[in-house]
Amino acid sequence: MNDALYHKAVMRMAATSKGAGGLENPDATATVDNPLCGDRVTLDVTMENAVITEIGHKVRGCVLCQASASTIGEHAVGQRAEDVKHVRGRIHSMLNGGADETPEPWTEDVAAFEPVAPHKSRHQCVLLPFDALIEALATAKAGS
Amino acid sequence: MTFDSAAIRTQFPIFEVPATGGAALHYLDSAATAQMPNPVLEAVRTHDANARGNIKRGVHFMAERATEAYEGARDKVAGFLNASPTEVVFTSGTTAAINLVAHAFGQSLKAGDELVVSELEHHSNMVPWQMLRDRSGIVLKYLPITGEGRLDLEALGATVSDKCKLIAVTHVSNVTGAVTNVSAIVAAAKAVGARVLLDGAQRASHGPVDVAALGVDFYAMSSHKMFGPSGAGVLWGRAELLADMPPFLGGGEMIRSVTKDVITFADPPARFEAGTPPITQVVGMGAAIDWIGTLDHEAVTTHLNRLTERVLNGLADLGGGNGRIKVIGPQGLQERYPVISFEVDGAHPHDICQILDGHGVALRGGHHCAQVFMDAMNLPGTSRVSLGPYSDDGDVDAFFEGLEDAFARLGVQ
Fold it and tell me: What is the ipTM of this complex?
């Protein structure tokens, strides 16, 4: 079971850490904590016409959290807040047994988190970077 | 009495239950919750099967039996603590016990009074005081820690002023296993007329505690960390302090009389036990104290010290001297209990614990409800091994096999 959790794709995504590091002039920043384990994700974002133009993240977290943040770094540019919320909803559903596929360009990376589903205590590890991004986007919208 | 870990282990049916993937269970999380031996499990079952009733006011047979069992457990706790039964208040656990003091003793404090906790505290002995600070205007001060994760006693003079009314610290750290030098804390408190509360959650499973000899004023502990059921715990307080404290919760059982306009409260400990208490759990806690009494604590300590040393030496060997593994807390066996926290460079505690779970090894990772400590040590969290009298060499072997596997999977160099 743990073999499945730490498979090559997840380890690669975590190691790649796409988007790692803060942005110099973000339009919005959000930091969220996982109270269960103390993990913390800070997410910077720049926007243009409600579309994400740049992403930067700092992750103090596990492999799953790092891989999830890397997925955001890979695919969030060009997306809108509603797109990100939709993806977050699909991941949440998938982790809880849902079968709906996540839309492109997220499909393959998000599918890599399927083995996390039986480990409820680890769901938030995957969702935390998305929660940070959604909070940052809400801040950006409120400030626009 | 001689110590036989195999014989001890057979008293714990949990070890017959397969863990992840059918692996044998290697339970190294006793600091979170200790397992329950057969005599305790049987006491709980027997009570509910043969003596279930509400306590105190009922005159029928079962109420009498339940009351006798409940008060019998109070006598056992009193014996365990070398205290009077009237000083033993049953709560739902250590957290509730400390909250009780924060509310009831806290009412005697006024804005500007000072209270000292340490940076090492579990949230259960920190958040109630922070909440008291925020509602009453007292000043909360933090005793710093040393690089070895112990209370910095040299800072006592600078931290404890004559405005201090209470020092609330852990007896044994739930993160590092470090034992607090209680006499130094008590001396500092006495010098300014302050009281001392000890969080004994991690200490109580290791044998009787003499609160009179310690010289403290309050002592809190939890049943589930001392081989009893969850949902029960104890606040011990000096009789004169409990007598002066107002109740925390109101309800049945904690009054002498109630009219529309006037409440007369019961004497301690009933004053602090509003409502139906966790009767069955308290009875189980009494059985757990009986069980602890069957152990040869010197032999258990020798056994656990040997296993602790194996863990410490094994971590040092696995670290290879290149600093990739760092033990957080005491580096040796002096003044410590068998709780060992470590940090691995390049591997998150939850990933380590997840992979070890695949080996049947139950380990805890994260901040251990001690975020102020983690901040002080500049750590995101640790992985933690904690042992009980049922722990054996097979558990330590499985831990290191799992850890090597985790290193390989997570790419720890």
Answer: 0.84
